[in-house]
């Protein structure tokens, strides 16, 4: 069970690193306020409404298209390993405190500690198990 849990945790950590470093782009094509097409890996299909006739030069105003293309870019993390030399003061204080407490955690402990050495057992007037004839088998 412990080996399975260890492998499962390692696989989850690998997927976490994979998804935090992966970047992707979502292309979307809107015609007015309506989403016509979206794509993750290739260019979107257009609805054909953005191609206006350009042969009408006698118009005083320029017609604008109702279609818009939007692009959502999600960038992944490029630098996974942070350098050890660029620690802030708070991080340095944490590392120093952790090191100091971990080193002093096991110093000065006796190998044979008996916490009840100075206490005497209570005086038994009656042996209740014998009186009630209950025995643990």
Task: Quickly give the structural class.
Answer: alpha+beta
Strand content: 15-25%
Low-confidence stretches: 54-61
Shape designation: elongated
Order of helices and strands: HEEEHH
Describe the structure.
The chain is α+β, with helices and mostly antiparallel strands. It contains 3 helices and 3 strands; from the N terminus they run αβββαα. The chain has helices spanning 2-21, 89-103, 128-132; strands at 24-31, 34-39, 67-74. Strands 2-1-3 form a 3-stranded antiparallel β-sheet, with no helix packed on it. β1 (24-31) and β2 form a beta hairpin. It is elongated, with a radius of gyration of 37 Å.
Task: Write a compact overview of the structure shown.
This protein has helices spanning 2-21, 89-103, 128-132; strands spanning 24-31, 34-39, 67-74.
